[in-house]
Amino acid sequence: EIVLTQSPGTLSLSPGERATLSCRASQSVSSSYLAWYQQKPGQAPRLLIYGAASRATGIPDRFSGSGSGTDFTLTISRLEPEDFAVYYCQQYGSSLTFGGGTKVQIK
Amino acid sequence: EVQLLESGGGLVQPGGSLRLSCAASGFTFNNYAMIWVRQAPGKGLEWVSAITGSGDSTDYADSVKGRFSIARDNSKNTLYLQMDSLRAEDTAVYYCARSRRMTTVTTDSFDIWGQGTMVTVSS
Question: How many CB atoms neighbour CB A40 within 10 A?
Fold first, then answer.
């Protein structure tokens, strides 16, 4: 089983700042089959990024994904008020697993 | 409108059983893999089970293997999760979700999610 470790656990930033979230896999994720989701309280997850770097339909271009192998990054270029949420990575190169999440909160 | 609607959650005693349903609409159901994901109160997402569009292949997390069973009825556009031998640690909101691609495998990202149904295992 591929274990995904997300860091930091919590990120405290102000609107307009840049957010950089990390997802590290215990073994290489084949074909960069890595996705990122956003979840707000009381809501279902929302797909942001698939294939490590492709934005899902309707996702603003301030969200970008990068990485390969075992190290992946989600970057939010300039935080909007609606971006404060919890973010999860998910790998689908070998079965399915989710990371533990990173909470992006207002500083 | 593409939509998933879960039902069947509730309160059940330890050792009991429950069957969750996920009704799909707005897309060709049998073209997509489907999964169940759960979220314990205040915790992160945990993948539970997956099934291919045809239903010929399934996969389970180790934590539920042998106790839970995923199935689908493509004639009814409905996904199921049969949960047996329930434990307190199975208490969670259960979400169903659809694969982003029309695919014959269970491994994908998931772009359509239901609103979730709460399962509470307690005496």
Answer: 13
Q: What is the mean pLDDT of chain A?
A: 97
Distance CA B51, CA B70 (A): 7
B110 touches chain A (CB under 8 A): yes
B35 contact A CB<8A? yes
Q: Which of B44, B59, B100 sits opposite A98 (nearest CB)?
A: B44
At residue A67, the pLDDT reads 96
> B53 is written with which tokens?
């569009």
Name the minimum distance, in Å, from the CA of B21 to any CA of chain A: 17
- For A6-59, what is the HEC assignment? EECCEEEECCCCCEEEEEEECCCCHHHCEEEEEECCCCCCEEEEECCCEECCCC
Regions of chain A where pLDDT drops below 70: none
pLDDT in tens, B70-108: 999 999 999 999 999 999 999 999 999 999 998 888 889
The two tokens of residue B41 are 């109160």
| CA-based nearest residue in chain A for residue B95 | A44
Q: CA dist A28 to A17, A32, A91, B60, Å?
A: 31, 9, 10, 21
Rounded Cα distance between A88 and A103, Å, is 9
